[in-house]
Amino acid sequence: MQTRPVRHRVTEERRAECHEKVGQHIVSIEGLIQSGFQVRRSLSLAFSTFNRESCLPSCWFSADLLVSRMEREERETLANEVEEMSGRANMTLDPDTANPFLILAGDQRGVGRGDKWTSLPNNPERFDTEPCVLGSPGFAAGRHCWDVEVAEGGDWWAAGVAQDSVRRKGVLSFTPQEGIWAVGQWFGQYHAFTDPDWTPLRLACLPRAIQVCLDFSDRQVAFADAENKAPIFTFCLASCPGERLRPWLWVGMDSWLKLCP
What we know:
The protein is α+β, with helices and mostly antiparallel strands. The chain is built from 2 helices and 14 strands; from the N terminus they run ααββββββββββββββ.
């Protein structure tokens, strides 16, 4: 009777251990969601009482805003921990950053370019000129990979990462100097958006999906064909000041892009 090599048994045991730890994280997330509701009720009551007794305008204090920020940070932290176990980044697009011409899918992973300007709040996070959108969560350490489906990208589009502080108002240059590291297509030609000029890319075949790997240890952003892993381009992050980086998409006319974990 043949027995499996020790190496294979160790690999299966490690895989089972990872699945068990991911399950524990999921249970923790469910507990945090429940506790988050309790915290929201308690803070709302406390702030409401304080506002009445101090006669201060209620708009000076917002329990919903505070709790919402706490919940978002908790979700990002837990998502990063679960991702480290699986090796893949799980993310969605942030509707608060989407240009008013963009239309997000119901699961907030896909995005297309609409024909009409949607009336949306002109909040500081929103791109008001460029048809861009950021993804969540953001990252400041570790190694994080995800795919972007570009098969229906159309004539022009781009995908990559951007600093959390990237300008949201006015025309952007889409370069590392602007705080954006990306590759994309401009009317049939692939480019890496480098300084001071874009770098034309010669690809053997056009990818249907692009893999983005953000690696803070090696201080680089690497792009590859998601199907055959053929390298496309690699940016050095030497000029990055160390702030949080987020997935970034630039969506052209008749374009449809999708984030995939």
